[in-house]
Automatic annotation (TrEMBL):
Residues 345-355 have a biased composition (Basic and acidic residues). One of its GO terms (cellular component) is cytoplasm. The keyword Membrane does not apply. This is Inositol polyphosphate-4-phosphatase type II B. Residues 333-342 have a biased composition (Polar residues). Keywords: Hydrolase, Lipid metabolism. PANTHER family: AGAP000124-PA, INOSITOL POLYPHOSPHATE 4-PHOSPHATASE TYPE II. It comes from Cyprinus carpio. InterPro entries: INPP4 (IPR039034). One of its GO terms (molecular function) is phosphatidylinositol-3,4-bisphosphate 4-phosphatase activity. Residues 333-355 are annotated as: Disordered.
Amino acid sequence: MFKQDIDLCVCVVVSMCFRTADDSAKVGTVVVSRMKMGEIEDGEVDHFTTDMHQKCTLVYESSHGSVNDKDNGPIMNAVFKNAVCKVYRFQTVDSKWMLVREQMAECTLSFSIPKQLIALYIQEDTCRIQELKDLGELSPHWDNLRKDVISRYDQIIKEYQDTLAELEKLTGPLFKPSCSKGQKYLEFIPINLHTQRMRVMCPRKTDSFYDVVTVGAPAAHSQGFKNGGLQKLLSKYESEKKSTAYQCIYYPPEQTAKAREILCVVSQLQPHISALADQLLQTAQQSSSQPLRDVLKSLEEKTEQFVHALKDELVKSALLALHAARPGYVSKCQSSAQSSPARESPVHSDSIPHHKEYDEEEWDRVWVSVAKSLNCVIALVDKLQEQDNNNQESAPSHTLADVITSHKLPVATVVWWDELAVLVQSLKKCVAEVAERARRSVSFVLLQEAACSTAQGLQLQQRRDAVFSQALAALACGFAMRLYAGLEDKGFLRQLHAVGLVAQFESLLSTYSEEIGMLEDMEVGISDLHRVTFRITEAASEEAVSLQPTVSGRRDHYTVEVPLPHHAFQALPEELREGKPLRVLPVLFNVGINEQQTIAERFGDISLQERINQKNFEILEGYYKSLTDTVPSECLPCFQTQTDIKELLDTLGQNVVTKKRKNVEILWLAGMICRRMNGIRLTSCKSAKDRTSMSVTLEQCSLLRDEHQLNKDYFVRALDCMRREGCRIENVQKNIKCRKYAFNMLQLMAFPKYYRPPEGTYGKVDS
């Protein structure tokens, strides 16, 4: 009955189970497989059962081990663990057979990135407390507000320290299962974060692979969604802040953001300028004048950046407000304060009262003194170099170092060097004074923000921290996977340092009930990823611990460093080896597909989804313009389908504004565009388990059909096979200890056609 002239795969499988030394527990399984492509001889047919041939084209599988191929080099194995692999054979339109390997893995970044972020949150809030204390003596009103704010920060720090301590105790799987999404101590950990790679091997063709990161929607499940998510809560919070601002000075969000930016610039540039000033003195003793000129140029650039940042009017007005908060100022105005009502109108930053004894021009004179000190240094170095040139004309053996350091030279020359040292010290002193005043002024602005906050403000900060932590872990995972895959792709590396990458988050959340709050959380969390840049570094060794990405920075800006082994790092373009910050542009597209979305579309409100899709389409379109203006088309990957990116973008733009129920074509188009632009693909639903599995398997089969000529008669069979026996059903098993997707018949009737699993693979379960 099997006498057919077709190609099949001969597969020999050896499975080995490993147990602990005391034989008390099973720790893993390694499956060693050998496959042979070719025509099946008559005598070999009985090795394949009728059931396998008709129901599924799965060839072999391995669990909790690694597959022996180039996907699993030392870099990959350092970050991606506990792989599950499935291999299939599918027929192409020309009656050939392709091998398709699916590999799903956990990621060490699921826990390491959140733990690093929590430590950074603690460090930043501890510094904020010290900055508030450094404001000096304040009037009783402001001092009480300061004590209250410090108390709130202490509370956050204590909670974060407890959370970090609990996370440090954890051992076991490297992912948070969906059933744990509501646990408070795990709120910073992304839900069910996994990577999935599909590698396609066709006869006489180069292997192709397609990656996707699957993760539960970044959301604060432990805090609930009764009052909505971050987008709604933040809007309400800003309105309430204005109404309670009678206690303090109200600064709008853009000004408090500016204050954080200035604080960050001051913290970074002051030590940098001080170090360059010291280096200038040291370089003056070297044997060549060119290094001196180079250091002076760097010092000039950094000092100009410093001065430019502090010229902002916010600093000047904040200094005035801080002066007005001193005890002496309040005592002189007590009579007017006593006549005022107990509850006043909000005081805005543009209506701060001026005090006649405060010299408003003093601040201008202080920061201008920095520029003057720098100019004096430049002038003296020019003078020294001029003498160096004159000496070289008369005696070529004399250098600038000789002019400065020789005991045989005129006393006046030695005086000039001493004068340079005095000027350098003066510059450092001026910079330190300006930095201290600026730090106090913007710290006072941030005190206003915190003082105007209610207890809700504290909860919102914690909610935003947790959501951002989940989003960053997923993005860092996707960036690492995309970087490792593209290390030998010169076009990709050029694009990476020239314009950065796009990271496309696909969401399947509905706009009804609690999932609205999840989507509002997710929108803010992904938007906050704009504050993140990446940098590639050289690892200290090839040990797994040295290859782990790390995070640094504070809430207004974070940098993720991804280390590479020496040989891989040295092969990178110079721009990447020099540590250039790399930009990743996050975009979010959402289309709800379940029965709750049916209710939202017929009786509810889908404006949130429409706004998100329209806004992110514009961001994606802007990235495409930058990409085409900067990088030649040869740098982008080649696809079999001939539709170009511009045409796909036009179609996506039309779909975004079209009123159509469950328009999943938006997701398909966004995914195609992302892949064609070398982007990072991420797919989410509530727990990245059921709807996500339907989406990932559909995308994989669509890629096989469009790019690898999958026989149309095999499309549905391949789809059912991946959903029944593939990595995604293993993901369900890992999460809820059950091999069934959490759908019932009523829900499936509401799903778009190709998002429905095969019979026997679904049933209502607790998720």
